[in-house]
Structures are given as structure tokens and as C-alpha cells.
Specification:
Elements lengths: L41 H12 L7 E4 L6 H13 L7 E5 L9 E5 L4 H23 L2 H31 L2 E6 L2 E8 L2 E2 L2 H6 L2 H58 L4 H16 L2 H7 L25 E5 L9 E4 L4 H5 L1 E2 L2 E3 L2 E3 L5 E2 L2 H5 L3 E5 H6 L3 H11 L1 E2 L4 H5 L12 E2 L3 E6 L1 H10 L1 H6 L2 E4 L3 E3 L2 H17 L7 H15 L4 E3 L2 H17 L7 H15 L1 H11 L10 E2 L2 E10 L2 E15 L3 E4 H4 L5 H17 L8 E7 L12 H13 L3 E2 L2 E3 L2 E2 L5 E2 L4 H15 L6 E5 L10 H8 L4 E5 L2 H9 L17 H31 L1
Parallel strand pairs: 1-16, 1-17, 8-13, 13-16, 21-26, 23-24, 26-29, 29-30
Antiparallel strand pairs: 2-3, 2-7, 4-5, 5-6, 9-12, 10-11, 14-15, 18-19, 20-25, 21-22, 22-24, 27-28
Helix pairs in contact: 1-2, 3-6, 3-8, 4-6, 6-7, 17-19, 18-19, 22-23, 23-26, 23-27
Protein name: endopeptidase La
GO molecular function: ATP binding; ATP-dependent peptidase activity; serine-type endopeptidase activity
Keywords: Coiled coil, Hydrolase, Protease, Serine protease
């Protein structure tokens, strides 16, 4: 059987790059100065700093990259540093609009003012709710009120007395009844009874009737004057009340006005409050009837017991009392309400009511004057949140609109608060695909997010970078309160980082994955009662993580060993080869071999991809198969029609195939079927191919090699097994120790190939062959036998065509 010699195999030292712990300038990370930043992300960091410093509008930033690269931490840290150099932004509050209550007014207040104004207004109402009732109960007020009541009441009584006297002089009595006043004639000082009236002669009765009718009109005039006097009395009392209330209100308000002097908006609002309190002093009298604790008893200080005093409240939307820098806000649930704020309602007497005190701020309010960090996917997944964010950024103001109002499903009257001016820098964090989709599909996005911070996946693994990487790991361990990490454990983590990067010359910048390994290793260190995390703890963490996630991989390997999935690891077969693929389940990937078979016959130049025909092959796989057709037609029997009918299939594949990493294996199977030369089944192949026959690098090379190694190891390594990989993938090798040990012992080989000719020679043990001066391949070579087969197909096709024409001529004759 053919077998690659040692010169063809990848040197053992190149199968996995080792980091020598002795070469590291420390014994544990406790000796290192920790590094809290990110390494290898200078380009992205510069973009984030620019977003934090530039003052022009629309320079919001989209931070793109993969999960676990520290994007959120980096954005938070850099923007917090920029925020420290910016002034503390203004505060915002909503107050009552005394002219149009459904349109609350916003107040822009200097830092540290809003809560103080709110407390002063609560204290003012509390004080007035005690002082105004006390003033109205004072002897001075009661004397003045009684004087007014006596004055206007006396005028009415005097008018009635004078009328009664005039009526009496005319022998008519004014009598008060339960239903009002009436007039009656009198004789000898006594009211004339009906029978006495009837006994009078007619002339006398007419005189009495005329007299009573005239006096009745005079009485009516006197009575009509009573409401006017009452109104005058009431007005006088109101003036007295206003004057009385003004004294205490003005005295209290003067202190607040002095405290907030120089803030024009506050001064204008306080003037309106003063006028309304004086005009509505009765509110404070009503409050006093509920007890003498005032409207803000110690247990309840926010108007809950006395909603009538909401009109004087200050609803603080943004307070900066607890901060000394510009805000950096992260909103983890960016719904419409959480972004732009909301207006709450309460049920009272079976109806939903609201007022300006129920306006609640959103993330844009809290971040106003600073920075807002959002997860792009979450914003886009929340109904109307993305549209609302763009609207606020474009208009430069925060307008609160509920979802029901925007959908038109709520027709009740609601509030229309003044929009608050917006000055914020937004940082969206998301995947690269999401960024490019937004750039392509959303014109507003390009206008509003002019900056991008693109995070690198890996960095060069120079000696200086490795030491810096160790400082990053040490800093992570210190921040996470983990034990110090030994140099050999750092070396193991760095090697794992290279494996994550799929490149022995690079270090992965997916710090989250390494952090998970380190935390788990620290747990095993604690269980062993050690004080320093060692390499064995890192190895245990990696091994146990692999075991937890490997159930499906083990079941597939079991199916191979039991013969349910047909894979040969020895012998040789024509038109059959072991291809390698990577299976991804969530964030776990593993390699798995698949049998690829090819069948050929005379045809019209069709290369049938069975996976594509049954719609189980993706576009990249179909492209790879079409490249095979291009290679065959451009390499063999150039002077004859391409007369091949071939089929390719991944045997026992039920989940679909995509990618072109198996295209070289498919080409090898085709060449084997055409040349009728068997391929060694102890070898597996990965790599894509171009139309020139060059083998190109692919991804997942480590997992693919390890997947076939596990199959061979379970059946017993013979020393004649191995994997052919593209030569360009050698730098990507970071294989597990079991594979490296087997290769060092000569039991398993990894062979780099650069061309299809080199690969077919290794797989078949037959020279590929090159065209000689006569333009022909050697007869016994693989290429010679392939071309001869294709020429045979073409000749047979030509002969078949002549026979068909002759039969047609005889039939017509």
C-alpha cells in the first residue's frame, strides 16, 4: 500500500506550537503588573475614543465583532474615561402647566438643583397646609370676615326692616313663611282673616289688593337685591382670603425664589405657583380637615394621600446628585419605554388617570449629556425601539410616545410633555453581519452611525505579545478574585489561545473563552487545596469541558465503530475516499470523517452533484463541484469533447453539506474512478481546489484531523494512517497531545500537499505524471490513465453518433 515517507509528513514540532514556561519572565502572575485593557485592538480603541471625544452630531459608533472579545467591557471603560473629562450635564424635571395641564413643561436645571427644588416644593406645600388653615382660624381673620358678613348681611336686613315699616304704615304686614315672604292686610294691629276680608265691601277689597300688589313689587325688588349683596359679600371674603393667603404664601415663596435666583425657568414657574396657590387657598383648607399632619405625613411624602397637591409637584426626570462626571448608561432591555420613557396611569373610581408626576424617564434621559451603550440585536428585536432611537437622534430631542399611541389603538386623551433636548453619543454593539445589513438596508443608519470599531479576532504571537497576554490573564485573575496563575498554566492558556485562533502564529482575542477556562481551573485548584493555578488545572478544565460537550461526537464515533456509519481505515478502493468535515453544535465544533464516492461512465459532459440535486448541498459546495468540472475539462483530452457522466455523493449524509473544503477529496475520488486506481483508505483528505489544481487552505483543520485520528485510534493505529492537508494550513496546526504523540511515534501522519498531482501520488502510490514534449502524459501515470479513459469515452461517443446517423439514413431510405 502507498505510504507517505517521513520527508512528506509535517515535522513533529510543527504539529503544535509549544510555549516554554521557563522562557516567561515570571513564576506566577502575582509578580506581574496587571493589564486591564485589551491587547491587539488598537484600531477599534482609536475609533471608540474618537466617538467619545468628537462633539459633532451623528458621530455615533457601531462596535462590531464576535461574542467574548471584551467589546462591552472595552466600550464601558473607554467611554467612562472620556466621561470623566466632560462637565456634569444639566438636570431635567417636569412641572405642571397651569394653563394647559395636558402639556407639562420641562425645566432645565443646573446640576444638583432638581432634587433640591423638589424637596423645597414639598416642604412649601407641607408648611402651607398647616399655616394657611391656622391663619384662617385666627381671631384677626375671623373678625374681618365677620365684619364683612355683618356689613352685607346688615344691608339686607335694613332694607327688609325699612320695607316692613313702610308696609305697616299702610296697614300691611310682612310675614315670613317656610316657603318665603308674604304680605297680608291688617286691622287694629291684627292680620285680616279670609272671612273678614270677604265681609268687606268691594271697593275696600280693591284698595287692599292694589296696595298689596304695589308692595309686592317693592318686596320683589328688595329680594332681588339680596343675591347681589351676597355676591359682593362673597367677593369681599375672597379678596380677604386672597390677601390673607398672600401674606403667608409670599413669605414662604420669597425664600425659595431667593434660593433659586438666576434660573429664569424656575423663577417663571415659581411665579405661576404663587399665583395659583393664592387663588386656590381652599385646597389647603380642605387638606386640614383630614388631620393636622399636613399633606405629606412622615410615612408618605409624595402626594399619595393628597393628589390635589400634584399640581405643585416637581417630577425629577434626571438628577446628577450622585455623579461627578458625564453619565455612561448601559440599557440591557432597550424597549420603547425603557429608551424614551413612559407615562404611567392609575385606576381611580374605575377610570385610568394620569398627570405629569407619572412621567418616567428612559435610558436616553439618564444618558443625556453623556454616553448610551446598547446591544444592537436587542434594540432591533424590540417593537418600535429602533425607530424611536433613530427619531430621537435625528431630531435632537426626546419625545415620549407610547406604543399604543403610535399604533393608534389608544384614543383616550393623554399627556403631551414638552420634548427634552437631547445630546448623547450612542454606542451600538453587535455582530459584523448585523452591521453590514444595516449599512445596506437602512439609510438612516449610515447617517447616524458614522463610526465603526471593528474588533480583531486574533493578534500576532510575538514574544512581547505573549508577555503582554500573560499580563492580561493576570489582570483578569486579579479582578475576578482568582488565585495567581503559574507560568506553566499561562503557557497552557496561550497554547489554547492559539488553538482558538486556528493559527500557531496568532493569539485569539476571544478573552471570554479563556476566562471561562481559567475560572474553572481555579475551581480545580481550590479542590486540590493549592494556592496557585497550575498547568494540570488548565488541562483538567479543558478536558472536562470537552467531555461535557462531546456526547454527540461520541455517539457518531460509536456508530462508526459499530459499522452503522461506513468508514474504512485500511485497504484501498477505487473511486472512494475519506473526506473530513466539521460539525458545529452551538459553540462546540468537532471533526468527523465521511465516505465520498465517485462513479463515472460515458456521457455528455455532466458532473452530477447528488447533494445539490436533492437540495442537500449549499452554494459553496456546488461551486466546488463545478470547479472540478473546470479542472477536468482544462487538464485532460483538450482536443476532444468532454464526454464524461460522473456522480459524486457524500455517503450516509442526512444533514446537508456546504463549503468547498471537500472539493480536493471529491477530485481525488473522480481521478481514482477514471484511472481505475485504488485510493488508500487509511488516509483522509481535506482542502479545497481551484481550476489550476492548486490545493487551497480550509478552516477547522485541527478538528478534522482529530476526528479522523479518533476513528483510527479506536480501531488501532497501524502506522499507515494519516491526513492530507493543504500545505498552507501547516501554520494553523495546534493539535491535541494525543495526535502529536501518535505522530511522534510514527503511528499517524499529517501530510501537507500543495497540488492535486502531489496528493494523488500519495493516495495511490502511482506517479501523477506530467505532459512530455509530445504533449502526452506517461501511459502508466494517473494522469495518463485518466486522459486515456476520457479519450476512450470521447471516441465511443463519436462512434455512437456515427452509428445513429447511419441507422437514420437506412431508415429514411
Amino acid at each position: 500500500m502507498p505510504h507517505p515517507d517521513d520527508a512528506q509528513s509535517v515535522p513533529h514540532g510543527s504539529l503544535r506550537r509549544r510555549v516554554d514556561p521557563a522562557a516567561l519572565p515570571f513564576k506566577t502572575t502575582a509578580e506581574l503588573e496587571s493589564y486591564g485593557g485589551l491587547v491587539g485592538q488598537e484600531r477599534a480603541m482609536d475609533a471608540i475614543r474618537l466617538a467619545g471625544r468628537i462633539h459633532h452630531q451623528d458621530f455615533n459608533i457601531f462596535v462590531l465583532g464576535e461574542e467574548g472579545m471584551g467589546r462591552h467591557t472595552a466600550v464601558q471603560a473607554l467611554l467612562a474615561k472620556e466621561a470623566a473629562g466632560r462637565p456634569l450635564p444639566d438636570e431635567w424635571a417636569y412641572v405642571n402647566n397651569f394653563d394647559e395641564a395636558y402639556k407639562p413643561r420641562c425645566l432645565r436645571l443646573p446640576p444638583g438643583t432638581a432634587e433640591r427644588l423638589k424637596d423645597r416644593m414639598e416642604a412649601l406645600v407641607n408648611d402651607l397646609a398647616t399655616e394657611i388653615p391656622a391663619l384662617f382660624e385666627s381671631d384677626d381673620y375671623q373678625t374681618q370676615r365677620h365684619a364683612i358678613e355683618a356689613e352685607y348681611g346688615g344691608q339686607q336686613e335694613t332694607a327688609m326692616a325699612e320695607f316692613a315699616e313702610r308696609a305697616k304704615e299702610e296697614d300691611v304686614a310682612l310675614i315670613r313663611t317656610p316657603v318665603g315672604f308674604m304680605l297680608a292686610a291688617i286691622r287694629d294691629g291684627k292680620v285680616l282673616k279670609p272671612d273678614q276680608y270677604a265681609a268687606l265691601d268691594k271697593d275696600e277689597q280693591e284698595k287692599i289688593d292694589d296696595k298689596i300688589a304695589r308692595l309686592q313689587e317693592e318686596l320683589a325688588q328688595v329680594l332681588r337685591n339680596a343675591p347681589k349683596l351676597e355676591r359682593q359679600s362673597r367677593k369681599a371674603i375672597e379678596q380677604l382670603n386672597a390677601h390673607t393667603a398672600e401674606r403667608v404664601v409670599s413669605a414662604q415663596m420669597a425664600e425659595i425664589e431667593d434660593d433659586f435666583a438666576g434660573i429664569a425657568q424656575v423663577a417663571a414657574h415659581l411665579a405661576e405657583v404663587r399665583h395659583d396657590m393664592i387663588a386656590n387657598a381652599g385646597l389647603f383648607l380642605q387638606a386640614s380637615q383630614g388631620g393636622n399632619e399636613g399633606p405629606f405625613p412622615e410615612a408618605v411624602r409624595k402626594y399619595h394621600d393628597h393628589p390635589e397637591f400634584d399640581r405643585y409637584a416637581v417630577n425629577v426626570m434626571v438628577s446628577r446628585e450622585d455623579g461627578d462626571t458625564a453619565p455612561v448608561v448601559t440599557e440591557d432591555l432597550p424597549t420603547l419605554d425603557h429608551l424614551t420613557g413612559r407615562i404611567e396611569h392609575v385606576a381611580r373610581f374605575g377610570a385610568l388617570t394620569t398627570n405629569f408626576t407619572m412621567i418616567r424617564p428612559g435610558a436616553l434621559h439618564r444618558a443625556n449629556g453623556g454616553y448610551l451603550i446598547l446591544d444592537a440585536r436587542r434594540v432591533l428585536s424590540e417593537p418600535m425601539a429602533w425607530d424611536a432611537l433613530k427619531r430621537c437622534l435625528k431630531s435632537g430631542e426626546i419625545a415620549i410616545r407610547s406604543m399604543g399611541e403610535r399604533l393608534g389603538v389608544v384614543s383616550t386623551i393623554s399627556l403631551e410633555p414638552d420634548p427634552i433636548p437631547l445630546n448623547v453619543r450612542v454606542a451600538l454593539i453587535g455582530e459584523r453581519m448585523l452591521y453590514h445589513l444595516l449599512v445596506q438596508l437602512d439609510q438612516d443608519f449610515r447617517d447616524l452611525f458614522k463610526l465603526q470599531a471593528d474588533f480583531e479576532n486574533a493578534m500576532d504571537s510575538s514574544d512581547e505579545a505573549i508577555v503582554l497576554y500573560a499580563r492580561v490573564i493576570g489582570g483578569f485573575a486579579a479582578r475576578s478574585k482568582l488565585r495567581p496563575v503559574a507560568a506553566d498554566a499561562i503557557a497552557a492558556l496561550i497554547e489554547e489561545s492559539m488553538r482558538l485562533a486556528e493559527d500557531s502564529q496568532k493569539l485569539s482575542l476571544h478573552v471570554g473563552a479563556l476566562g471561562d477556562i481559567l475560572r474553572e481551573a481555579d475551581h480545580y485548584t481550590a479542590e486540590a487545596d493549592r494556592t496557585v493555578v497550575a498547568a494540570e488545572d488548565i488541562a483538567e478544565a479543558i478536558q472536562k469541558r470537552e467531555r461535557r460537550r462531546s456526547r454527540i461526537r461520541e455517539r457518531l464515533q460509536e456508530s462508526v465503530q459499530r459499522g452503522k456509519i461506513l468508514i474504512d481505515t485500511d485497504g484501498a478502493t477505487v473511486g472512494q475516499i475519506n473526506g473530513l468535515s466539521v460539525v458545529s453544535i452551538g459553540d462546540y465544533r468537532f471533526g468527523h470523517p465521511s465516505r465520498i464516492t465517485a462513479r463515472v461512465r460515458l456521457g455528455t459532459g455532466d458532473l452530477v452533484d447528488i447533494e445539490r440535486e436533492v437540495e442537500m448541498g449549499g452554494p459553496l459546495h456546488s461551486k466546488g463541484v463545478m470547479i472540478l468540472s473546470g479542472y477536468l475539462t482544462a487538464t485532460y483530452a483538450l482536443d476532444l469533447p468532454f464526454s464524461l457522466q460522473a456522480s459524486l455523493v457524500f455517503e450516509q449524509n442526512y444533514g446537508g453539506v456546504d463549503g468547498d473544503s471537500a472539493s480536493s477529496a471529491e477530485l481525488y475520488a473522480l481521478l481514482s474512478a477514471l484511472a481505475e486506481i485504488p485510493i488508500a483508505q487509511g488516509l483522509a483528505v481535506t482542502g479545497s481546489v481551484n481550476q489550476l489544481g492548486d490545493v487551497q487552505p480550509i478552516g477547522g483543520v485541527n478538528e478534522k484531523i482529530e476526528g479522523f485520528f479518533e476513528t483510527c485510534d479506536a480501531r488501532g493505529l497501524t502506522g499507515r494512517q494519516g491526513v492530507l492537508i493543504p500545505a498552507a494550513n501547516v501554520d494553523h496546526l495546534m493539535l491535541r497531545d494525543a495526535v502529536v504523540s501518535a505522530a511522534r511515534a510514527g503511528k499517524f501522519r499529517i501530510v501537507p500537499v500543495a497540488t492535486i498531482d502531489a496528493g494523488i501520488e500519495i493516495l495511490t502510490g502511482v506517479a501523477a505524471g506530467a505532459r512530455g514534449p509530445d504533449g502526452l502524459f506517461p501511459d502508466a501515470s494517473v494522469n495518463g490513465r485518466v486522459e486515456a479513459r476520457l479519450r476512450g469515452f470521447a471516441e465511443r461517443r463519436r462512434a455512437f453518433g456515427r452509428d445513429v446517423v447511419q441507422d437514420g439514413d437506412r431508415g429514411s431510405a
